[in-house]
Amino acid sequence: MNKQEFLERLENLLNKLSPSEREKAISYYSEMIEDFIEDGCTQEEAVIKVGTPGQIAETILSEDVSNKSKKESTPAKKMLIATLIVLGSPFWGAFVLMGLMLLLTGFCLLLVGYMLLWTIPFLMGTLTVVSVILSVVSTLGSFAIMQSNLALGLTQFGVGVIASGLFILLAISTGMISKYFVVITKNVWGWVDINCLQRLRGIKLW
Amino acid sequence: MDAQLKKGFLEFCVLAALKDADSYGYQIVKDVSTCIEISESTLYPILKRLETSQQVSTYSVEHNSRLRKYYQITDKGIGQINRFLEDWDEIEKIYKFIKGDKEDE
Question: For residues B56 and B81, is the Cβ–Cβ distance under 8 A?
């Protein structure tokens, strides 16, 4: 690896840093390599002596994170103060509060809607359970009835068979609908995560 | 030497390397290496810390048609060295304690 390649690789690895910090690091290592060369090393030897771009970037970035976490309390405090000022002012405070309440209401409505959606698979699940009980009780019970009244017993047996059929159909469709709902939930959540939450966390997507 | 301990010493060694004359990265590594192991990549964060805490200041000088960054120790940096030297008695006490010598025996 020659000096140019080394510095380019390092620059890429440090792209999370601010331009000025990145520039500082690049010029430091560029100077080091030049000094090694001046001292009699070849360019390749000099690059090997200063270390690999990966290790160097790791050291610098870990150091940068520890600096940032110390400073981060101040912007957070500023945000809090700004919020308090806005909320505290009689005019804007009312508007902001109203906005917040509307947002909260919207969120609650969405939540309720989502829960209502799930009542469908829940209802079907309940019917499945009912049908399985009905089929077992009817089928077994029909034998007892058959001994005293054959016609009624046979009817009862038929009801049991129908209930078994219903149970099978309901069980399959409940499973399918639940799966479908889970897939939809996952997709919607994934969309919310990418478009809202990750942006909030400051992750650059594009 | 223990990595944690070394990390603490290195900062003072770098300051000491600048005590008599201003110096630049490559030379600092050379000078400090005579007493304690230091690499170019360990020096970088140390210099950055010393710079942000204003124990050293920097300026650039043209050398062989490129820029060389020089580091100069500030009064605050010299104060830091002196404080370390004044702490010697305490360090000696810790050393003795770890070794197991009791002073009043």
Answer: no
The parent domain of residue B36 ranges over 3-99
Inter-chain CB proximity B44 and A36 less than 8 Å: no
* CATH code of the domain containing B70: 1.10.10.10
Tell me the three state secondary structure of residue A201: coil
B95 contact A CB<8A: no
* Whole-angstrom distance, CA of residue B33 vs CA of residue A31: 18
Provide the 3-class DSSP secondary structure of residue A79.
helix
Q: Which of A3, A29, A35, A61 to mutate to test the interface with B (most CBs of B within 10 A)?
A: A35
Whether residue B105 is contained in a domain is answered as no
Residue B79 lies in a domain: yes
Tokens of A5: 């390649």
| Tokens describing residue A184 | 């939809």
Q: Based on the structure, what is the number of domains in chain B?
A: 1
Q: Give which of A33, A42, B19, B18 is closest to A25, Cα–Cα.
A: A33
Residue B75 lies in a domain: yes
Q: How does pLDDT run across A134-173, given as a tens digit for each residue?
A: 888 888 888 888 888 888 888 888 888 888 898 899 889 8
**Stated pTM of the model:** 0.53
Which has the closest alpha carbon to B21: B82, B70, B76? B70
User: What ipTM score was computed for the predicted complex, to two decimals?
Assistant: 0.86
A68 touching chain B per CB within 8 A = no
